[in-house]
Amino acid sequence: MVQPFDQYPGVKSVVSGYTGGHVANPTYAQVSSGTTGHTEAVKITFDPDQLSYAQLVDIYWQVADPTDAMGQFQDRGDNYRPVIFVNSEKQRQIAEKSKAQLAASGKFTKPIVTQIESAQPFYAAEDYHQDFYKKNPERYAMEEEGGRADYQKKFWGR
């Protein structure tokens, strides 16, 4: 989820990590075991004068399958569930409104299951998980093929 956001003007940083669970400072091995309650997530720092929160949410819909409650593309399990973590009531309202508009658009035949939850403590992933798409371009391209790329073509024409 780093690469789709990393390319937009106004995005200052995108950090891979874990949030929403009950274990402090989890490791990838712990999170992927499904026992921590954490979701793999990205923490995005952005300049709202260049990119609005509403625009970030719109980008999210284009890169995450909002109809798949048990994973994202080739990544399966509750730790990959679709969720938007919000930091304020204003962000919650923006995300909820955007979700309702997407549901009403008729673009999807299945219900939108993405949850919108209050932000919890965020734990940065290990260094080898940061900037995965830059460090492992061949593997990233293989994982994208048939996953997110097909989704974007089918639903968003990109």
From TrEMBL:
Listed EC numbers: 1.8.4.11
Give one Pfam hit by family name. Answer: PMSR
Query: Which Gene3D superfamilies does the UniProt record give?
Result: Peptide methionine sulphoxide reductase MsrA
Ranges for domain Peptide methionine sulphoxide reductase MsrA: 2-141
Question: What InterPro entries would the database entry show?
Answer: Met_Sox_Rdtase_MsrA_dom, Met_Sox_Rdtase_MsrA_sf
Keyword Phosphoprotein annotated? no
- Which one of the record's GO molecular function terms can you name? peptide-methionine (S)-S-oxide reductase activity
Identify the domain of life. Answer: Bacteria
Instruction: Determine if Nucleotide-binding is one of this entry's keywords.
Output: no
Its keywords, alphabetically, are: Oxidoreductase
Listed under catalytic activity are: [thioredoxin]-disulfide + L-methionine + H2O = L-methionine (S)-S-oxide + [thioredoxin]-dithiol; L-methionyl-[protein] + [thioredoxin]-disulfide + H2O = L-methionyl-(S)-S-oxide-[protein] + [thioredoxin]-dithiol
Which PANTHER family has this protein been placed in? Answer: PEPTIDE METHIONINE SULFOXIDE REDUCTASE, PEPTIDE METHIONINE SULFOXIDE REDUCTASE MSRA 2
What role does this protein play?
Has an important function as a repair enzyme for proteins that have been inactivated by oxidation. Catalyzes the reversible oxidation-reduction of methionine sulfoxide in proteins to methionine.
Q: Which family does it belong to?
A: Belongs to the MsrA Met sulfoxide reductase family.
NCBIfam families, per this entry? msrA
Task: Name the chain's protein.
Answer: Peptide methionine sulfoxide reductase MsrA
Q: Which organism is it from?
A: Schleiferilactobacillus perolens DSM 12744
